[in-house]
C-alpha cells in the first residue's frame, strides 16, 4: 500500500518517513540543528516547492526541549511557536491551518507531530476537509494518503536509530528516507536512515 509521507509519534519517540513515487531522489541531512529533506546529487532539477524542507527540529521551550517533525515547511513555524512558549496543541493547529494542505494535484495533507520534554505527544494533520490535532498516549500514525487520520500503530522507539530504521522498514511502498527521534534523560536524540 502506498501511503505517501507519514509520521509516527508516541510519548517516548517517533519518526518521519518520506515515501515517494514522484521524487524518489531525496535524502535526509543534518543541517543547522535540523534534519532536512532535499534532493540527492543525481536528482533531476525541479521547482516543486514541496521537495526540500526541514522535517525535524528540536527546540528549547519554556518547559524544556520539544521535538517537532512533519512533511513540509510547516515544521519551522511550529518549532518557532514552541520556542515562543505556545502550547504544542496551539503551535500545531495554528501552523497547519495557516499553511493549509498542499495545493498540488493531490491536495496532499500536511502532517506533523510534537513530543515534549514531559512526554506529551501530539499528532496533527490538515486536509482539504479537516484539521485534526490530537494528544496521543500510544504510538500513532498519520500519513498523507490512505491513512490520513491518526490511528494507533505497533511501533517501538528504543533509540533514534531504531525508530528511523523501523519507520523506513514499515511495509508501506516507495520508502526513500526516514528520521527518528527519541526522548532521553539528556534531551532528544535524532537519527537518519537514507536509502542505499
Automatic annotation (TrEMBL):
GO terms for molecular function: IMP cyclohydrolase activity. Transmembrane segments: none annotated. It catalyses: IMP + H2O = 5-formamido-1-(5-phospho-D-ribosyl)imidazole-4-carboxamide. One of its GO terms (biological process) is 'de novo' IMP biosynthetic process. The keyword Nucleus does not apply. InterPro entries: IMP_cyclohydrolase, IMP_cyclohydrolase-like, IMP_cyclohydrolase-like_sf. SUPFAM superfamilies: Archaeal IMP cyclohydrolase PurO. Residues 2-186 form the Inosine monophosphate cyclohydrolase-like domain. Residues 27-49 are annotated as: Disordered. Keywords: Hydrolase, Purine biosynthesis. Its EC number is 3.5.4.10. Pathway: Purine metabolism; IMP biosynthesis via de novo pathway; IMP from 5-formamido-1-(5-phospho-D-ribosyl)imidazole-4-carboxamide: step 1/1. It comes from the Archaea. NCBIfam families: PRK04151.1, purO_arch. Belongs to the archaeal IMP cyclohydrolase family. Catalyzes the cyclization of 5-formylamidoimidazole-4-carboxamide ribonucleotide to IMP. This is IMP cyclohydrolase. It comes from Haloterrigena gelatinilytica. The lineage of its organism: Archaea, Methanobacteriati, Methanobacteriota, Stenosarchaea group, Halobacteria.
Amino acid at each position: 500500500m502506498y501511503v505517501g509521507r507519514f509520521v509516527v509519534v508516541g510519548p517516548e519517540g517517533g519518526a518521519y518517513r518520506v515515501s515517494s513515487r514522484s521524487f524518489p531522489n531525496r535524502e535526509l541531512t543534518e543541517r543547522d540543528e535540523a534534519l532536512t529533506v532535499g534532493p540527492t546529487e543525481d536528482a533531476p532539477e525541479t521547482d516543486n516547492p514541496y521537495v526540500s524542507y526541514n522535517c525535524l527540529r528540536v527546540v528549547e521551550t519554556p518547559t524544556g526541549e520539544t521535538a517537532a517533525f512533519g512533511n513540509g515547511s510547516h515544521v519551522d513555524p511550529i518549532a518557532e511557536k514552541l520556542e515562543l512558549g505556545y502550547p504544542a496543541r496551539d503551535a500545531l493547529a495554528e501552523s497547519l491551518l495557516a499553511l493549509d494542505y498542499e495545493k498540488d494535484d493531490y491536495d496532499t495533507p500536511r502532517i506533523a507531530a510534537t513530543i515534549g520534554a514531559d512526554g506529551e505527544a501530539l499528532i496533527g494533520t490538515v486536509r482539504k476537509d479537516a484539521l485534526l490535532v490530537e494528544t496521543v498516549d500510544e504510538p500513532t500514525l498519520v500519513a498523507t494518503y490512505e491513512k490520513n487520520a491518526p490511528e494507533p500503530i505497533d511501533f517501538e522507539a528504543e533509540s533514534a536509530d531504531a525508530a528511523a530504521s523501523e519507520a523506513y522498514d514499515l511495509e508501506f511502498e516507495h520508502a526513500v528516507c526516514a528520521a527518528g527521534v527519541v526522548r532521553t534523560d539528556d534531551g532528544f536524540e535524532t537519527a537518519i536512515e537514507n536509502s542505499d
